[in-house]
Amino acid sequence: MTTTVAAYAAPSSKAPLERTVIERRAVGEHDVLIDIQFAGICHSDIHQAREGWGEAIFPMVPGHEIAGIVTEVGSAVTRFKVGDRAGVGCMVDSCGACEPCKAGQEQHCVEGNVQTYNGIGKDGEPTYGGYSQKVVVTEGFAVRIPDALSLDVAAPLLCAGITTYSPLKHWGTGPGKKVAIVGLGGLGHMGVKIAHALGAEVTVLSQTLRKKDDGLKLGADHYYATSDPATFQELAGTFDVILSTVSAPLDFGAYLGLLKTGGALVNVGAPEEPIALNLFSLLGGSKVLAGSMIGGIAETQEMLDFCAEHGIGAEIELIEASQINEAYERVLNSDVRYRFVIDTATI
């Protein structure tokens, strides 16, 4: 039987979120039912609830940073049992048969992965996210949260953690490498922690020095203000990898100038506006401008295990569900250190 649960939803584009009830599907033989304990607020929740990235599905229950406890399992489930600590990230299904899926890159499913919210499931019904009391997901798209991680600080790892871990690993972050993180927000602060734990020399590039003390405490070795033109002169040709986490268009030519020969500028932020780029800034020095989108399920589990081993959780502000709309405005004003997490017991 389906389950009725309380949730917070945006009834229409740009409308304030409000308390409502939604239906969760019956637990199938390969499904797990998770009682959600905590749900992170990602900037992409705001982009989608306000249709910044295009037409969306309403009512929308955002949330793809989900941490909770398994309370029911289907008859064929082998990876989870009742009582396990589990998480759900940005996707809840994929075709499972295409080349990317078979390679553990479900986020790049040729048919399109099923998003945790603002998507259409294989049953033809809209998907609803983590701003709710429970979620039902096929076991292959749930991950185990290690005991060493508190569920509240683990929730943001399901997006912010994997979104930064995957490209940092892919582009060879480690001892002897110089890595810059652009922006010290929800994504950026995780990028600093993870790059530091991987053994790189880490620099934060932020608009101002307002968060410098935080950045250094989180693991950065250096901190520069991008509003100071001298920064781009002083750091020219310095970095092996630059990870841009910001959701605003940048002067990519200027940032490419900070790379060593053969270096990579990897973008995980998703601005709503297109960018302009003079290709000569790529040609000189054989530089790379790349993108990265979350990670596959196996890599997400790898990231969680890595974070548990190194004592890495998100820096959070725990809020009640009634504060979601206020939290959205604060995110837009960069007034959060560094991830809002909803205590779903308050929904």
From TrEMBL:
Entry EC number(s): 1.1.1.2
Sequence ranges assigned to domain Enoyl reductase (ER) in this UniProt record: 9-342
PROSITE patterns attached to this UniProt entry: ADH_ZINC
- The record's top EC class is oxidoreductase
The protein's UniProt keywords, in alphabetical order, are: Metal-binding, Oxidoreductase, Zinc
The chemistry this enzyme catalyses reads:
a primary alcohol + NADP(+) = an aldehyde + NADPH + H(+)
Q: Please give the cofactor(s) recorded in the UniProt entry for this protein.
A: Zn(2+)
Q: Which Pfam families match?
A: ADH_N, ADH_zinc_N
Q: What family is it from?
A: Belongs to the zinc-containing alcohol dehydrogenase family.
What is the designated name of this protein? Answer: alcohol dehydrogenase (NADP(+))
- This protein's species is Streptomyces albiaxialis
Lineage, opening ranks: Bacteria, Bacillati, Actinomycetota, Actinomycetes, Kitasatosporales
